Amino acid sequence: MRFERFSKYSVVSGISFGMNFGLTAALCQLMALPEETAFAIALASVFTMNFLFMRHWVYDDRLSTTDGIRQFRFCIIVSCFFRMAEWLSFVLLNWLLVLHYLVILTIVTSGSFTIKFFVYDRLVFASGNTAAGDKRLESNT
Asked: Which sequence spans correspond to the domains of the chain?
């Protein structure tokens, strides 16, 4: 099951990367937005699609044990943390290195890929966790 889940996660992450990459490039090239601004807009735009695919496809076996609204809220918090870390890494590397901004984008998003899998699996989309509406805690009250 873990390999299947990781494979699905990889597919969703690949789609997200493609959307982040394409949208960042389009906003820079077609709309002449600054690189940092374009990447921030791309990250925010892909969030909802990510959540829906993760919840209903990657972690679909856990739907009955989680509260979608609470899970969405928790996902927002975790994703904001990741997006800020990715954006700050992008800005820092863009300032430090003499590389094309799309190479830096690739480095940053690839670096967070594995960490996010474990955070999503064990926290955000965990079966019955407190952020997603732990049924054990609710039954004790």
From this structure: 2-139
